[in-house]
Write a structure and sequence with these properties.
The chain is α+β, with helices and mostly antiparallel strands. Helix content is 22%, strand content 37%. The chain has one domain (2-141): Thiol Ester Dehydrase, Chain A (Roll), CATH 3.10.129. Strands 1, 2, 3, 4, 5, 6 and 7 form a seven-stranded antiparallel sheet that branches. A hairpin with a 4-residue loop joins strand 6 and strand 7 (125-126). The radius of gyration is 16 Å and the shape is elongated.
């Protein structure tokens, strides 16, 4: 996993586009962008010291409530990209994760915005303060923009 340099740089993970992820036109299938985004979000939690098992032990889990993808450039098998995560914290039950799928030459291929929350798995409701819920579990909250 990599992270760009700089205090405000988002967390990012490298991914190589695999041939089986492409469609009949030879470019990355649109649904795979969602998988890349999800992988990067889980990787950010992992980098913050929050494995899935720790969240489950606390009776909480992340949920995506709305996802928007803006496709900018096609990706093909063998292309290497980084998928970033920038957490935008508000004062409500939800927060936004802004993500960019960027080729290694710096060219953005897609922009993804996900409205997320932290679900109380017993009550089946969003926790009131997701920032605090994650900060309490994190050993290094920088990847979540909380450091």
């Amino acid at each position: 996993m990599t992270a760009e340099t700089g205090a405000d740089a988002p967390f990012a993970v490298p991914i190589t586009v695999r041939g089986y992820e492409t469609d009949t036109q030879g470019h990355l299938n649109q649904s795979v962008y969602l998988q890349y985004a999800e992988h990067a979000r889980w990787s950010a939690l992992q980098a913050a010291g929050i494995p899935q098992s720790a969240m489950l032990a606390q009776g909480i889990g992340p949920v995506a409530l709305e996802t928007t993808i803006r496709y900018l450039r096609e990706l093909r098998a063998g292309d290497e990209v980084e998928v970033s995560c920038r957490f935008v914290w508000g004062e409500r039950k939800t927060f936004v994760i802004e993500q960019t799928v960027r080729r290694t030459d710096g060219t953005p291929a897609a922009e993804i915005s996900a409205v997320c929350g932290i679900l109380d798995l017993t009550a089946r409701r969003l926790v009131h303060d997701p920032r605090t819920a994650l900060r309490e579990l994190a050993s290094d909250a920088k990847a979540l923009g909380l450091g």
